[in-house]
Design goal:
Radius of gyration of chain C: 31 Å
CATH architecture of chain B: Orthogonal Bundle
Structural class of chain B: mainly alpha
Strand order of the largest sheet of chain C: 1-2-3
Number of domains of chain B: 1
Oligomer: heterotrimer
Largest sheet of chain C: 3 strands, mixed
Number of strands of chain C: 3
CATH topology of chain B: Helix Hairpins
Number of helices of chain B: 3
Number of strands of chain B: 0
Distance between the termini of chain B: 65 Å
Number of helices of chain C: 27
Order of helices and strands of chain C: EHHEEHHHHHHHHHHHHHHHHHHHHHHHHH
Distance between the termini of chain C: 93 Å
Radius of gyration of chain B: 18 Å
Chains: A mainly alpha, B mainly alpha, C mainly alpha
């Protein structure tokens, strides 16, 4: 049974991944990536990592990809340009990366014995949090700090319109808007 | 229901799948010019790595892998946020998200 | 031998050096009389010191006649040790007296001859420098110091030949002299190296090239004697203008005439003879080397004398005459009669310097016309020049009792005892010498005048500064040979006895007699001596008279001789056997070709410039270009590079770890 699910979701994940990287349209790519994540979440569940599986759906598919979609729609349609680089270069690159993948697979794929039976509590949230708040407490706190910093950074970057070279135009526009709001005389539309 | 005699799935299978997803992600990074799709490929690569972590964790019955995946998830989120913010800024400058247009790293 | 150390020896050489430096550095800022005083005074001072050395030497017992003066240790390097040290023995004292004495006379003469010349001070600086170098050559107590002086005189010769450098031909002549000398010097250097190699390690820390040390180790020199002797002699053929390196001397006549007198007659060219005489202990070990020297000397004497018969430039006649007489000196050394060779050096210096200075007087009066065909009957306008030059002619022809007779006769006697064939050559040359000198005198001073009207108006005898040295040299040309008045004629041959200790070791392989005396086994009789002396004298006298007759009576002999056998012999002689042309074709042109086409175009321009220098630059540039493409700023390319690198590392780790 397990094997069947594995092969099913594994195939779906690979297909979804392939489709992700090959679509012209960014939105399509994003949706295929979401489906890939869902398949992977199923695989996580097969590995008894229930907590992580839920997190994968919540965070990755639910939050990060939504953010991606926001930005894609904010930036508008991408005008496809012709790819540069010779065919030979592309072929070489393709082969190199495939080679890497194949090597890794060969390297890592040796152990084919089945997993040992896991205790019922394996992968439960209690077990994970036990580790998280004891041995890896410091990293846990640091991650919190990291997220804080990231938030600040992202907000700051997004606010830059008020200052800098672009600021002049923005300020002028703002000024114009204010003048227009106050009264319409003597101001060109 | 007929008994399907599929081979039992072990650590190696998961790891091979992880390698495959990782490779696909890398292909996406190298061969796509759209910055957003590159980003998404990177997320794909990270996910592949998460998969391998969890596989090892299951094989060794140790939760350390789970913890690590948690961190990866957090960092991926942070990275996505900041990265996308930068991307937006770049877009405002050049009106393009084609990475080939940003060649400032050239000597 | 016991040696006496004196410290005034160094001043013999250093005084002229000082003179050269003063005149050289202060140049035109000195008034004429100051230049004269410094230049002439330094040489006269050196002469005075040489006299003192001579007297000091004479006061010593015969076996201890050696004055020594070490200045400093020059090269103490491992096995090789060379000091700058001067040594005076009977041979050296003759040479320094000659160099400083005749040198002083020529300096005095030059004050008159070079008057008004733009490079007056430079001339005297060079001339003093030359005296210094020549003294270094003869005073040095080791072969290397001799070589330093050897090179120094070569340099000064170059400077003085090309003195009037505004005419490019003079510079070319100077260059030719220097280059030809250099070829000989190469042989000299190799000879020195052979000696050093043979002796090093066996002489302790003594100075290995010192003459005394070398003479004490003749057993070690034996095996290399022929090689070293011939190599050193090669240097001598360059410096002393023998076959095959004599070609520079006639061209050297481009320099001022006093220079020709001093350097190319009296002193520098005799350096080769001095060297051979000095190294007599080496040559005594090699019959072959001595034979070569004798044959080369005789051949050169003959060839040069035949060429002198046809030359029309007065200085060229004298130049070839010098080459011929030098051949005599080497002939003497070649048969082991080193002392007689030195005797001829001395007498030749007197009469040849006189001949050149006299010629200078003529040229001066003729406003630098040197072609004898445009002279004639000058004895009325230049009486003193004529008289002194005639004395010199008698001397060079070997007429009794003038100086040349004694030295030449003794040479011929010693050669006869060794090798009759060579004697025939020597005798023939004596006849030719008398003849062409008579020709010179007749064409210049006698007969009817062929002088151009313009020049004839300004003919006048030279000033006293020029005539006085002529007179002194004339006296020496007459009486100078009397120091060697032979015993069979009732004299005591003072010179021979004076020089004998120096050549005591030089007779093992000599062909003939030792310094005028018999060697065991050779029949020695005064009857033979009288006979040969008589034959020489009569032959020379007849040739002289014949020559005078032919060229004063308007005989048609010269013309018909010139046309003989369709003028081929004449042309051959007149064009000096085409040696210069032969050398040019065989040596100069191939070297030019090699240098220009091969070495320059191929090796330098193409190989070195093109491939090595520019090529390596271009290679680096292009490699750089190649690597530049890796930095294209494309993000994806960088990612790809990462993955490629990772792949490589992984593969490497697999290989090394033998799979996971």
């Amino acid at each position: 049974m397990e094997a069947l699910f594995f092969y099913l979701f594994a195939t779906l994940a690979v297909l979804a991944a392939l489709l992700t990287v090959t679509r012209r349209d960014a939105v399509t790519s994003a949706f295929w990536l979401i489906s890939c994540f869902l398949c992977v979440a199923a695989l996580f569940a097969l590995l008894n990592a229930h907590f992580i599986a839920i997190l994968q759906i919540l965070l990755y598919a639910g939050a990060i990809m939504v953010l991606f979609l926001f930005v894609i729609m904010f930036l508008g349609k991408d005008k496809p340009k012709q790819g540069g680089g010779s065919r030979a270069m592309l072929a070489v690159g393709f082969l190199v990366i495939l080679g890497l993948g194949a090597t890794l697979a060969r390297l890592l794929g040796k152990e084919t014995a089945a997993f040992e039976a896991a205790p019922a509590s394996f992968g439960a949230i209690e077990r994970v949090s036990e580790l998280l708040l004891s041995r890896y407490l410091f990293a846990f706190e640091m991650t919190g700090l990291l997220l804080t910093v990231a938030v600040i950074g992202a907000v700051h970057l997004a606010r830059r319109e008020a200052h800098g070279s672009r600021g002049a135009k923005a300020r002028a526009d703002a000024e114009l808007t204010r003048l227009k709001a106050r009264g319409g005389e003597g101001v060109d539309a | 229901m007929p008994e399907l005699s599929l081979p039992t799935v072990g650590l190696g299978h998961y790891l091979s799948l992880s390698a495959a997803l990782f490779t696909i992600g890398m292909l996406g990074v190298v061969f796509r010019r759209n910055a957003l799709i590159m980003f998404m490929s990177i997320e794909l690569m990270l996910t592949a790595v998460n998969l391998s972590f969890l596989a090892f964790s299951r094989a060794r019955l140790d939760h350390t892998g789970h913890v690590f995946v948690l961190f990866v998830l957090a960092v991926a989120a942070a990275e996505a946020a900041v990265g996308l913010a930068i991307l937006v800024e770049l877009f405002r400058k050049r009106d393009s998200v084609d990475v080939d247009d940003f060649r400032e790293l050239m000597e | 031998m016991h040696e006496t150390t004196v410290t005034y020896l160094r001043w013999i050489a250093l005084l002229p050096l000082l003179g050269a430096m003063i005149n050289g550095l202060f140049n035109r800022r000195l008034p004429k009389f100051a230049t004269d005083t410094v230049a002439v005074g330094s040489v006269v001072g050196a002469f005075a010191l040489s006299l003192k050395a001579f007297l000091d030497l004479r006061a010593l017992p015969v076996a201890e006649r050696y004055l020594h003066d070490t200045l400093f240790a020059w090269m103490p390097i491992g096995d090789l040790r060379v000091d700058v040290a001067f040594g005076v023995d009977p041979l050296t004292v003759c040479m320094i007296l000659l160099v400083t004495g005749v040198g002083a006379l020529i300096h005095i003469y030059s004050t008159g001859y070079m008057k008004g010349d733009g490079g007056y001070q430079r001339y005297f600086a060079y001339l003093n420098l030359f005296i210094f170098a020549m003294l270094l050559l003869v005073l040095g107590d080791n072969l290397l110091l001799l070589f330093v002086g050897w090179e120094g005189v070569g340099l000064c010769s170059y400077l003085l030949i090309g003195f009037w450098f505004h005419d490019i031909n003079n510079s070319i002549a100077g260059k030719k002299a220097f280059v030809v000398n250099r070829i000989g010097d190469f042989g000299f250097l190799l000879g020195m190296l052979v000696i050093v190699k043979a002796l090093s390690g066996h002489v302790g820390d003594a100075s290995v090239l010192s003459f005394r040390v070398m003479a004490e180790h003749t057993e070690l020199l034996g095996p290399v004697a022929t090689l070293a002797g011939l190599l050193l002699f090669l240097g001598a053929t360059g410096k002393s203008a023998q076959i095959p390196l004599f070609v520079w001397l006639p061209d050297a006549m481009a320099g001022p005439t006093p220079v020709s007198a001093l350097i190319h007659a009296a002193t520098m060219v005799t350096a080769g003879v001095y060297m051979v005489a000095r190294m007599n202990f080496l040559y005594a070990l090699s019959e072959t080397a001595l034979l070569v020297i004798a044959v080369v000397g005789a051949a050169t004497a003959l060839v040069a004398a035949t060429i002198a018969l046809t030359q029309t430039d007065i200085k060229k006649v004298l130049a070839y005459s010098t080459v011929s007489q030098l051949g005599y000196m080497f002939l003497a050394c070649g048969v082991g009669a080193y002392g007689v060779g030195i005797f001829h050096v001395l007498t030749h210096a007197f009469f040849k310097a006189l001949l050149f200075l006299g010629a200078g007087s003529v040229i001066h009066a003729m406003h630098h016309e040197q072609n004898m065909l445009k002279m004639g009957a000058l004895r009325t306008a230049l009486p003193w020049t004529f008289r002194t030059m005639f004395v010199a002619t008698l001397a060079i022809a070997g007429i009794f009792p003038f100086a040349g007779f004694f030295s030449k006769d003794e040479i011929l006697y010693n050669v006869f005892l060794g090798n009759v064939a060579l004697w025939c050559v020597g005798f023939g040359v004596a006849l030719l010498t008398a003849f062409y000198m008579a020709r010179l005198i007749a064409l210049t001073f006698l007969g009817s005048s062929r002088v151009e009207a313009e020049t004839a108006k300004h003919l006048h005898e030279s000033p006293m500064s020029m005539v006085a040295p002529l007179l002194v040299l004339a006296v020496l040309s007459l009486a100078g040979g009397w120091i060697g008045w032979p015993e069979f004629m009732g004299g005591s041959n003072m010179l021979h006895h004076w020089l004998a200790p120096v050549f005591a070791g030089g007779h093992a392989a000599a062909h003939g007699a030792d310094v005028g005396h018999a060697v065991e086994g050779v029949q020695h009789s005064s009857a033979k001596e009288w006979l040969l002396a008589g034959v020489s004298f009569v032959g020379a006298l007849l040739a002289l008279l014949f020559g005078l007759r032919v060229y004063t009576s308007g005989s048609s002999l010269p013309v018909s001789a010139g046309k003989f056998a369709r003028g081929v012999p004449y042309r051959l002689l007149h064009r000096k056997y085409f040696v210069d042309e032969i050398y040019d074709a065989l040596i100069v042109r191939p070297i030019h070709f090699l240098s220009d086409t091969v070495l320059w175009r191929v090796v330098d321009a193409f190989l070195i410039d093109g491939i090595l220098v520019n090529g390596s630059g271009r290679f680096l540039s292009q490699t750089g270009h190649l690597f530049r493409t890796l930095q294209n700023g494309l993000l994806r390319w960088y990612v790809f590079s990462f993955s490629a690198g990772v792949l490589l590392v992984v593969v490497y780790l697999i290989r090394r770890g033998g799979a996971s």
